[in-house]
């Protein structure tokens, strides 16, 4: 099932549990605006190349729309729609004063030089600058983009609208970025895991972890699990996978990667087949890369007791059902990876106030937001007698539905 069908199916299930009116249900599902633009740039050799860029603004009932920008060859309108919809429910679950949006460009960032990436980002910004803004739609990094990408967007946007640091989050600190934003999604994932494990009488220290994806989210999550006494026994990325049953030395692996080394060449672990990564024995499995990686083919073979959805929509609905029957507990994306957008919100607040928080305050507030969402989700699970995914969806969808109704329907 594709990402949009899967996300919409989860939404409809939550809508039924909440007893929403069918007109309201339809209006919540249809995106506010879909933007598709052609971005043509000269390559370094002088030849021209075109890419398609998207920004889907899903809902703004609760505030300005918010969500990352992804650079990946598989980006298309359906996927961006699904990711934008997930942002609407995610910001609502976290009780942030935001709606949801997402953007992306169908490209392979690894095949483009730094100056080609800069030109592409600037052209994309030129095409969408009138439709984003500090109080309308605020982009941030996602897969394949980073603080540098946000710096280019900020610079290009400011040429049209004047200096506007709060138009993007996840910026470099020197340009108004927040301390702690780089690590925030991974750190939030760790707080979420800690709450879930505690409920089951377990803790990070003494548990084993497998992580798919070793970029921003996966590497920070791995590093903080390791710091807290967790044993990270296998890690995979787009180049391959490695394992060490005694635990991978995560700081040494990060150093190896920062020096340009490939995962498979790390000498503190042995290579494993990437097909086996998600079905290898462990306590906690963390998909931190692409969507749809847990599906009906591999779900029956999953041996983890807990799955923490650090990636967006990593679990297909068919896999969800199989995992539930096996007793595997799945902590859903719209809660598990919300640490990134929570600290993006803190960054936006700091930019608007013109005041900078220290990292300790950022991390402390992040923990408060993550713990509060977890308790609210558990409450919804109790009220609607449902699993954690539906607990999170009913929490988010109900907040957006209430805001929509309070605004009224009159033209
Ligand atoms: N960056 C952020 O703040 C947030 C990211 N997310 C989600 O987390 C996930 C990862 O995002 P980032 O870490 O930011 O991306 P990133 O671009 O920094 O890293 C992506 C990682 O995934 C790996 N990967 C790509 N294709 C793969 C494949 N076929 N098999 C195994 N590994 C593969 C890459 O090698 C890389 O290690 C995405 O689903 C994103 O939407 C969610 C919330 C916030
Ligand atoms: O930080 C943000 O605004 C959005 C992060 C994001 O794209 C996500 O949570 O999937």
TrEMBL record:
An MF annotation (GO) of this entry: glutamate dehydrogenase (NAD+) activity
The organism of origin for this protein: Carex littledalei
Family (UniProt): Belongs to the Glu/Leu/Phe/Val dehydrogenases family.
Pfam family, one: ELFV_dehydrog
Protein known as: Glutamate dehydrogenase
Keyword Oxidoreductase in annotation: yes
Keywords: NAD, Nucleotide-binding, Oxidoreductase
Sites marked Important for catalysis: 142
Entry GO terms, CC: mitochondrion
InterPro entries: Aminoacid_DH-like_N_sf, Glu/Leu/Phe/Val/Trp_DH, Glu/Leu/Phe/Val/Trp_DH_C, Glu/Leu/Phe/Val/Trp_DH_dimer, Glu/Leu/Phe/Val_DH_AS, Glu_DH, NAD(P)-bd_dom_sf, NAD_bind_Glu_DH
Active site: 102 (proton donor)
Classification via Gene3D superfamilies: Leucine Dehydrogenase, chain A, domain 1, NAD(P)-binding Rossmann-like Domain
PANTHER family referenced in this protein's UniProt entry, alphabetically: GLUTAMATE DEHYDROGENASE, NAD-SPECIFIC GLUTAMATE DEHYDROGENASE
SMART domains referenced in this protein's UniProt entry, alphabetically: ELFV_dehydrog (SM00839)
Catalytic activity: L-glutamate + NAD(+) + H2O = 2-oxoglutarate + NH4(+) + NADH + H(+); L-glutamate + NADP(+) + H2O = 2-oxoglutarate + NH4(+) + NADPH + H(+)
PROSITE patterns listed in its UniProt record: GLFV_DEHYDROGENASE
Annotated residues for binding of NAD(+): 185, 216
Amino acids binding substrate: 66, 90, 344
Domain Glutamate/phenylalanine/leucine/valine/L-tryptophan dehydrogenase C-terminal: 178-408
């Amino acid at each position: 099932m594709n990402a949009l069908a899967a996300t919409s199916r989860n939404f409809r299930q939550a809508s039924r549990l909440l007893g929403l009116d069918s007109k309201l249900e339809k209006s919540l599902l249809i995106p506010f605006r879909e933007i598709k633009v052609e971005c043509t740039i000269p390559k370094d050799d002088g030849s021209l190349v075109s890419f398609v860029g998207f920004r889907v603004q899903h809902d703004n009932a609760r505030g300005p729309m918010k969500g990352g920008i992804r650079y990946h060859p598989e980006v298309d309108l359906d996927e961006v729609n699904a990711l934008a919809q997930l942002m609407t429910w995610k910001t609502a679950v976290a009780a942030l004063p935001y709606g949801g949006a997402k953007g992306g460009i169908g490209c392979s960032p690894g095949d483009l030089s730094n100056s080609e990436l800069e030109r592409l980002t600037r052209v994309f910004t030129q095409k969408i600058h009138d439709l984003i803004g500090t109080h309308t739609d605020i982009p941030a990094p996602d897969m394949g983009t980073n603080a540098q990408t946000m710096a280019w967007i900020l610079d290009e946007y400011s040429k049209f609208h004047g200096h506007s640091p709060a138009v993007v989050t996840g910026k470099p600190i020197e340009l108004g970025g927040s301390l702690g934003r780089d690590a925030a999604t991974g750190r939030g994932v760790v707080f979420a895991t800690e709450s879930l494990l505690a409920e089951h009488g377990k803790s990070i220290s003494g548990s084993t972890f497998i992580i798919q994806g070793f970029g921003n989210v996966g590497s920070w999550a791995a590093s903080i699990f390791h710091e807290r006494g967790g044993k990270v026994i296998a890690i995979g990325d787009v180049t391959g996978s490695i394992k060490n049953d005694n635990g991978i030395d995560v700081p040494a692996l990060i150093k190896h990667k920062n020096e340009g080394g490939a995962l498979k060449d790390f000498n503190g672990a042995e290579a494993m087949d990437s097909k086996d990564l998600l079905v290898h024995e462990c306590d906690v499995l963390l998909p931190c890369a692409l969507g749809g990686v847990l599906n009906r083919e591999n779900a029956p073979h999953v041996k983890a007791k807990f799955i923490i959805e650090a990636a967006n929509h990593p679990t297909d609905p068919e896999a969800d059902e199989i995992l539930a029957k096996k007793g595997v507990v799945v902590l859903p994306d719209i809660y598990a990876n919300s640490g990134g957008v929570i600290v993006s919100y803190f960054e936006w607040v700091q930019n608007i106030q013109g005041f900078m928080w220290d990292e300790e305050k950022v991390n402390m507030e992040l923990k408060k937001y993550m713990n509060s969402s977890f308790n609210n989700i558990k409450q919804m699970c109790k009220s609607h007698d449902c699993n954690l995914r539906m607990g999170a969806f009913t929490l988010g969808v109900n907040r957006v539905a209430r805001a929509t109704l309070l605004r009224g329907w009159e033209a």
